[in-house]
Amino acid sequence: MGTYLSSRWRLVFFLELLLLILWISAPVSCETETATDARTTIDEADKHIESAFKMVLEAEKYSVNISHLLQELNVAVDLMAEAEMSYRHGNFSDAIQFAELTLDRINGLEGEALELAEQGGLEYGKSLSLAVTVSTVASCLVSILGVIGWSFAKKRYLRKASRLRPGLRKDD
Amino acid sequence: MISFKEFRALYAVFCSILLLIAISPAVLSLLPLPEGERFTELWLLGENHVAEDFPFVVREGATYDIFVGIGNHMRSSVYYTLHVKFWNRTSAISGQAHHDGDLEGAFYEYRIILENEETWESRVEFSFSNITVNEGSIHVGGVSVDGTVFPVSCSTDWDQEDQGFYYQLLMELWILNTTSSEFVSHNRSVGIWLNLTG
């Protein structure tokens, strides 16, 4: 009977100990999870901002007006700074909230930036082919007119020269 | 009257100039124009928006104003992060000497994307809280920027030589390296020394 009771009490003691460990570790693991969640959301928002920014740079290369897009992007990066600061100071729920707000703001901007970059690329291609065509046509015209013009200019020169100095040849 | 040879040479020069003008649209589109120096301006101004009257002797609870600005002359848009650091003299000296992109002491940040030749400026209103004084040392527990208090933990000892408890408020500029996708130190910083004896 005594052995039965002592083994029963031992079981109760171990169960209570297990419950105590679970109770203590639960908030810790929850907090770690929140920190991980915050980092993941921040990193995701960061990735989207960077992607949109790279598209903006691509569009800028083709001299596209990007001011409006940068204005929108600046609102997003401002929220991103709030998210990073909240994370650094341990306010993980605020960090998640700001990172999600950033994702909301950035939503659509990436597409818009990509569209601008593509549009810029197309316009650049068009202007480049126009410039090459204009240059080719103009240089051909200059070459042809130069040859034709030379025969006229030479005749004119020789006529004028022979009037001034009779018997002059072009070798003189 | 000029000789025939001279006339021929003159005609050739005239035609060459016309040919150069004709090919210029294609050349200008294909060859990049020479660029000037790429750099970023970073400035700090006092409360009267001039480079003087910076706060120096400060005390708990009082509010101080400075202006910080960035000018982009990098020939393209740049994504900047301006880290605001608060540290004691020892950390300031070692941190600035190494300049290894450490974020020690950083408690606040601004993020800005600027177009080429665009400038940005912001008024920074700051104050100090949770200050505890022990024998020969002082500890700052909170720095407020634009009304929001941020927890910091920074102690300094009494400086016998300069008679004060010295701290530095430093603004360090970082830029996004689009190749490595990481923010890297731009090796530019501005800051003010503060004597927290008030």
Question: What does this molecule look like?
Answer:
Chain A is mainly α and 172 residues long. Chain A has one domain (8-132): Up-down Bundle (Butyryl-CoA Dehydrogenase, subunit A, domain 3), CATH 1.20.140. Chain A has four helices and no strands. In chain A, helix 1 runs antiparallel to helix 2, helix 1 runs parallel beside helix 3 (92-106) and helix 1 (2-61) packs parallel to helix 4. The longest helix of chain A is centred in the first third of the chain and has 60 residues, at 2-61. The mean pLDDT of chain A is 85. Chain B has two domains: 1-34; 39-195, Immunoglobulin-like, CATH 2.60.40.10. Chain B is elongated, with a radius of gyration of 27 Å. Chain B is built from two helices and nine strands, in the order H-E-E-E-H-E-E-E-E-E-E. Chain B has 198 residues and is an alpha+beta fold. The N and C termini of chain B lie far apart (92 Å). The model of chain B has no long low-confidence stretch (mean pLDDT 90). In chain B, the strands form two sheets. A five-stranded antiparallel beta sheet of chain B has the order 1-2-5-6-7, with no helix packed on it. Chain B has a four-stranded antiparallel beta sheet with strand order 4-3-8-9. At the A-B interface, helix 1, helix 2 and helix 4 of A face helix 1 and strand 4 of B.
